Amino acid sequence: MIYLDNNATTIMYEEVFQILQKYSTEIYSNPNSIHEFGVKADVAMEEARFKIAKIMGVMPYEIYFTSGATESINWAIKGTALSRKKIGKHILSSKVEHSATINTLSYLNNIGFDIEYVKTDDFGKVDIEDLESKIRNDTILVTFMFANNEIGTINPIKEIQEIIKRKNEKTLFHVDAVQAVGKVDFRLKDYKCDMASFSAHKFHGPKGIGFLYKKESTLIHPLITGGTQERGQRGGTQNVPSIAAMAKALELSIKELYEMDRIKTIRDELAKDLEDLGANIVTPLNNSTPNTISAFFEGLRGDVIVNALSDEDIYISTSAACSSKGTSGSRVLKELGYSNKAAEGMVRISLSSLTTGDEVQRFINILKNVLEFLRF
Amino acid sequence: MIYLDNNATTIMYEEVFQILQKYSTEIYSNPNSIHEFGVKADVAMEEARFKIAKIMGVMPYEIYFTSGATESINWAIKGTALSRKKIGKHILSSKVEHSATINTLSYLNNIGFDIEYVKTDDFGKVDIEDLESKIRNDTILVTFMFANNEIGTINPIKEIQEIIKRKNEKTLFHVDAVQAVGKVDFRLKDYKCDMASFSAHKFHGPKGIGFLYKKESTLIHPLITGGTQERGQRGGTQNVPSIAAMAKALELSIKELYEMDRIKTIRDELAKDLEDLGANIVTPLNNSTPNTISAFFEGLRGDVIVNALSDEDIYISTSAACSSKGTSGSRVLKELGYSNKAAEGMVRISLSSLTTGDEVQRFINILKNVLEFLRF
Q1: What mean pLDDT comes out for the span B252-279?
Q2: Using CB atoms within 10 A as the burial measure, which of A18, B85, B162, B229 is most buried?
Q3: Which residues of A, range 110-129, sit inside 8 Å of B by Cβ?
Q4: Backbone angles phi, psi at B113, to 5 degrees
Q5: Where are the alpha helices (DSSP H) in A13-145?
């Protein structure tokens, strides 16, 4: 198998799985139990929180464990909307966000919030001037992704942050950082955003676990109410095995970051090889996550290419896994003004620190055969 | 170690962990990916949904995977409230519900919903006549637990269902079934409720996974919006390893149900032994989950007993793990009219199908010594 769909999900690091195993089978207690067996799980959980906070350069009590990025994004957006609706109902975002953001904003729009979309350039990068002109007194929230999941484009988060706070210091800024971790050196201390969402399975951790960073001063409504867990802000027995595993995955992802220079070299060479095979490259190579390349081939459907490669035990993607079923082509490409044919033709190849040059070479060789067959 | 805190969480069955391992390390793909590797995960997930539905006697498309019971309960209650607020804002429940329900209702109360609590008997069982008198034209939801997590009392869910539908057929009925599975033969087909919440880690499955049963005809707002997962009703990459493991845990829990006769016998003998040691039994032995017994000892704090036993590597609980930290005594006992001293004295012993008579005998012997020491 050659797995080149790492923006959809990643394999767990071996060490990460060992931690998952330890807290699933040995220290399986409820971290909220007051007995010693419960305390052991609680200690592991708080050590994980401390480790994540330390890596990110924030305080442990600013990290809230959730079931993943979609929950985190829902919490950040709906929590802000519901807690600040008396101050304002204006929210800014972009049309190339992940469906977790797009559909949450659409939900809020249906219940009376005023959602406005900031222009982006041809690669989906936020237009700073347009953003500046759209921030109003009643803008309660701005939410953007750090890097686009479908094509890899990186947003100028620091600039965005500065503009928001200059125009309206009360506007909260949420960053969907899902595609950042393990690909670029993303530390929260370098970005003064108010909230950020993360998902472990995108950086070689388990599925079903993530976290929301929420600045100490950021007070918003909880999404999931219940017990006193997570300082009363997120009810439910914490998933200690996955939390401890996530912290280890984050640690290893940061350790392995040096691999991204190698991956970028492979990715950039792959771009040339793809162009030689007739591809139109969509990803901006000089401003994107180094593991991602998206492209389309004139006259060929992306899903046909994906399926033909799948028969060869090679796995790439059409668009985002979260919206690839039952839809027709890349939503992001359509928003960027590409034709429906281009959008339906898009394929995404996403590498990880574990991808070898040999795998990519074998992929390109087989792709060549597949394209010849399909173009017959 | 003698683990008698199974209402807080349970150890995973060995077979369940093996499935978790398989889908964590081998078939780790995103079930929404269209390639063959993704399809394998999707098939495993849909087989799990089918298995759960079959066991429960409902349709697979009535099962929605969530991060656990707290999310399911939030979804059922808030989803109903937000989607029906134009019809009515009246919701009925009881004061002895789990904090996931109590605090969600309290949240709704703060934003303008009319929450009313039905009387219960001395053991926390819903008073049917009081319920009947309180159902109104604008009652949009009734939510009760199947069995109380702290003391084990079982509610007459079928009678409750009949009364609700007789008084107002439009009122939705949600059952918190968390403490039912693996303890009694709870099948949704026997209860015509509209929604029910479940958590895998209470029946020897993984933490961080659960499901919401939602009758096909029950249309409520989603809680977590995003991708097209779960028929568009719950966004986020599904946690396939935990979903597949949960289905196996449910299957095994049902298979092991015959053990509950043995466990009930052990529990009832334990009640006598506890009374011999001076305990006041709180749990109604003839109407409770057979694994649960709660009691208090005059003049002794529950947390002191729990900690003393913890030093002996024996784990029991004071009240619910989800509310046991930073609070003083059992909330349920206080609601039932017990004194603060009794509430602070409460201990809960919760067995599982894996508990042996020998373990319980060793527990009671050590408890005897502990009580002698503490009463010195």
Answers
A1: 97
A2: B229
A3: 111
A4: -85, 155
A5: 14-25, 36-56, 69-84, 99-110, 128-134
Q: Which of A18, A45, A21, A25 is nearest to A33 (CA)?
A: A45
Residues A85 and B206: beta-carbon distance below 8 Å = no
Structure confidence at residue A324 as a pLDDT band (50, 70, 90)? low
| Residue of chain B minimizing CA distance to A1 | B37
Q: Is B322 marked active-site?
A: yes
**φ and ψ at residue A292, rounded to 5 degrees:** -110, 135
In chain B, residues with a C-beta closer than 8 Å to the C-beta of A21 are 17, 21
β-bridge mates for residue B196, sequence order: B175, B213
Fill in the amino acid letter for A270: L
How far apart CA B166 and CA B35 sit, in angstroms, is 50
Q: How far is CA A18 from CA A47, A205, A371, B157, in A?
A: 17, 11, 41, 42
Structure ipTM: 0.96
Task: Supply the mean pLDDT for chain A.
Answer: 96
Nearest CA in chain B to A41: B9
**Phi and psi (nearest 5°) for A87?**
-85, -40
User: Is B61 in contact with B202 (CB distance < 8 Å)?
Assistant: no
A278 alpha carbon, distance to own chain's centre: 29
- Residue with structure tokens 């509950």? B260
Report DSSP letters for A33-53, one per residue. --SHHHHHHHHHHHHHHHHHH
CA pair distance A103, A320, nearest whole angstrom = 14
Over the stretch A168-179, which tens digit does the pLDDT of each residue have?
999 999 999 999
Q: What is the CA radius of gyration of chain B?
A: 21
- φ, ψ of residue B311 to 5 degrees: the values are -65, -25
What pLDDT digit, counting tens, does each position of A30-69 carry? 999 999 999 999 999 999 999 999 999 999 999 999 999 9
Q: Is B332 on the interface with A (CB under 8 A)?
A: no
- Residue A166: what residue type? R
Q: With contact defined as beta carbons under 8 Å apart, do B74 and A225 qualify? A: yes
Report which residue type is found at A272: K
- Give the closest residue to B31 by CA, choosing from B17, B48, B18: B48
Q: DSSP alpha helices (H): ranges in chain A?
A: 14-25, 36-56, 69-84, 99-110, 128-134, 157-167, 240-255, 259-276, 302-311, 321-324, 331-335, 340-345, 357-374
Taking 70 as the threshold, does the pLDDT of residue B138 lie above it?
yes
- Beta-bridge partners for A120: A126
